Model the fold of this input.
Amino acid sequence: MYSIPYLDLPPLGHAAGTVQLPGSKSISNRLLLLAGLSEGTTTLVDLLDSDDTRVMLAALRTLGCAIVQDGRLTRITGFAGRPQVASAELFLGNAGTAMRPLTAALAVLATQQGGAAYTLGGVKRMHERPIGDLVDALRGLGCTVDCLGTEGYPPLRVAGGTLDLAAPVKVRGDVSSQFLTALLLALPLAATDRAVTIEVVGELISKPYIEITLNLLARFGIAVERQGWERFVIPAGSRYVTPGEVHVEGDASSASYFIALGAIAGVDAPVRIEGVGAASIQGDIRFKEAAEAMGAVVHAEPNALEIRRGAWPLKAIDLDCNHIPDAAMTLAVMALYADGPSTLRNIASWRVKETDRIAAMACELRKLGATVEEGEDFLRVEPLARFQPASIHTYDDHRMAMCLSLAAFNRLNPAGDGEHAVPVRILDPKCVAKTFPDYFEALFSVVEARAADIPVITIDGPTASGKGTLSASVAAQLGWHTLDSGSLYRVTALAARRAGVSADDEQGLAATARAMQLRFEGVRVLLAGEDVSDELRDEAVGMMASRISAWPAVRAALYDLQCGFRQLPGLVADGRDMGTVIFPDAGLKIFLTATAAARAERRLNQLIAKGISASLDDLRADLEARDERDRTRATAPLRPAEDALRLDNSQLGIEASVQQVVAWWNARQPFDAR
Ligand SMILES: Nc1ncnc2c1ncn2[C@@H]1O[C@H](COP(=O)(O)OP(=O)(O)OP(=O)(O)O)[C@@H](O)[C@H]1O
Ligand SMILES: Nc1ccn([C@@H]2O[C@H](COP(=O)(O)O)[C@@H](O)[C@H]2O)c(=O)n1
Done:
């Protein structure tokens, strides 16, 4: 996951490959609660690991469930309708799928256990999301529910009361279907002696989510009788029975981003999505039909989808999106690539989600340059001929981040010239943790970008000037990859030494470099499967690296390998010739220096930290000799690129150096401060 303030998406190109979806949030949190309320142990396979499931797991633990997580398996031993604690304060973040059903279940349980009292709260936005319709329904049933802040909103306290099940329980269905889901999950706890009827007031929205609820209830032994979409009867004698093991299917709403990706960029080969398909019980699987209406070519298997681009530009649509409220957000961004204006209707529920999604979507699409009309319950988006670089605010809303990432395909814009392309900055990218923590990693694994579009910062300079340290920190701040090019010369030296190739044998060394079987795992270097990272730091290996790096054939042998490190979303490369030879088109080049005295002292401290003693004078003489050799060699000598910025860090700390480089980088980016 990218836990950084912003992630810049370079202009992206074609997409192909396979994505494994994380588990469905809706199914995961329903299953967790059902397992928690049941007697016995339920094993959930491929449960979603995200912010929203974590708060649900924590709440269930607090209430007395035993939970063991073991790889793909989560085993929950339920409290069988009797929480182990009579009072608890539950923090539920911004998870509506935890807040609503837990409120209902605990309100019902609190009426059955004298003295029980539970408080449920979350983050600030959770306290702005209405829950009054559920509170009214629970009070109508005889539960005691107090709103601790604003009436009709969390935080809430449920404590005591007397259930009256004689009359049907009434609940509004036209704001959020989660209120009905909450009652459907809670009331089997009360339907032991008599049937309980729920009546929906108003037109029920998001019916597919209710179907998920009914489907999962059935797996736990509760056969709800549905009479149209107005009445639901929970039979007398209801009792939660664990089905033992349940597999969590992939998240159909998350699939929407990759379905859209296939429709936009699946040109030569399809994008394959595994984990969800035609057999899905989630309503958002019908996003596939909307994508097909826009031109996507979809091949559906029971548990997988393959998507290719069909019509291009995409076909504009005018769609009632009530059946796919979450996934429909993706259509708003697809509309930028369409052949006319697209209208998404019946989406009023967007206004009470993680943020006011209608307002947020309109605002961010306009930043890209789009013309957008926004109504109480609709959004109309015009296709965009020329995208502007934009810094996208994500409102702590995972779906805003994931949807808007699709704007990075603007190079493919059918109304564009194929040349004009802009990057997209996603602010607070870690908000995807709510449902898809590794969304951006999954995206980068199936998309291509022109090498020239992938940004590079080069940091060259003499020995021990702090290049590696600076490079790693800048890369961490931007979410980029690193290339420690010195390690490639070092590993060549090590491989040659082991093979008995002399430092004077230019062709033998080059052949050794070409034949090396290398793997990089983070900062670790593996040579023929052996982790040689520590050995590479030996002074003797460094000295041999310095000698062999002067051979043109050795440098040529390592050229392609170094260029291959230029991968999405960006690269910070350090060495001696990064800015002059390997990445001459880098967007920012730094030449990092420090006095020889400062550098020798740093090297000494490094060695002391490793328990190695050395003489300061010897170290200084050694690094000056190395620098001299690097500066004076004929091929790729150490020197600043003409367009490099010089940074002397003799008196500048590491953090200050990092901030300086990041500030230089940002000053060259096209994003404004909006
Ligand atoms: N600005 C700085 N101020 C003080 N110490 C620093 C600074 N930058 C880096 N150092 C320290 O200097 C030492 C050498 O840094 P580093 O290994 O990053 O240098 P390098 O240029 O990559 O070296 P080499 O070229 O030999 O690989 C490290 O111990 C590091 O913590
Ligand atoms: N781009 C580069 C990087 C390094 N070298 C040579 O390799 C030696 C080891 O590098 P370290 O940065 O790990 O110390 C170094 O002394 C250089 O001679 C190079 O030529 N080009």
Summary: The first strand starts at residue 6 and ends at 9.
